[in-house]
Amino acid sequence: MRKQFLVALTGVGRDSDFRTTGPGALASLADSIAAHGINIRAIGGAEIGGSGGVALMVNDDQEDGLERALRSAGYTAVEVDSVEVEIEDQPGALAEVARRIADAGVNLESILIIADRGERVLVSLGIARSNVEPATRALGLSKETLAV
Question: Cα separation of 42 and 31, whole Å?
């Protein structure tokens, strides 16, 4: 199963400088990842009240390397599983998916749009491993299908 990595942009960096979510925070993170030859495939993030973070995905074969790269650069990261679902590109489609997950008692850790397929969008839902099964059941997903 693919993974998302949730990375805090506040913390001690590899040069013992205190990283904040000011100018250069994303550049520092991206530099640290690139220095290990890892390509970011999807990313999203925000800053609220001086704290920020990103959710990101890399190629499957680079996930282990990403964990090592983040750790060696002093970043705090959390790994969550990616449940991928294809939804209609229309108002209310995401609300329906989010409601199904909430009704199953599952907390959505992150969300990334990973592909635009015209009238449909492939979305990666970051979900704690212990909640993957209830989330996929709530969405009517199986190993054979990703569409709702």
Answer: 16
**81 and 3 in contact (C-beta within 8 Å)?**
yes
Strand (E) or helix (H) holding 71: helix 63-72
- Residue-range domains of the chain with CATH: 3-75 (3.30.70.260), 82-139 (3.30.70.260)
Whole-prediction pTM: 0.83
18, 76 in Cβ contact below 8 A? no
For the chain, 148 residues long, give each residue's pLDDT as a single digit of tens.
899 999 988 654 444 344 455 678 888 899 999 999 999 999 999 877 777 899 999 999 999 999 899 988 889 899 999 999 999 999 999 999 999 999 999 999 999 999 998 899 999 999 999 999 999 999 998 654 444 4
Tokens representing residue 48 in the block: 């609220």
Q: Which residues pair with 43 in a beta bridge?
A: 56
How far is Cα of residue 54 from the mean position of the Cα atoms in its chain?
Answer: 7
Q: Containing H/E element for 82?
A: strand 77-88
Dihedral of the CA atoms 57, 34, 74, 8 (nearest 10)?
-40
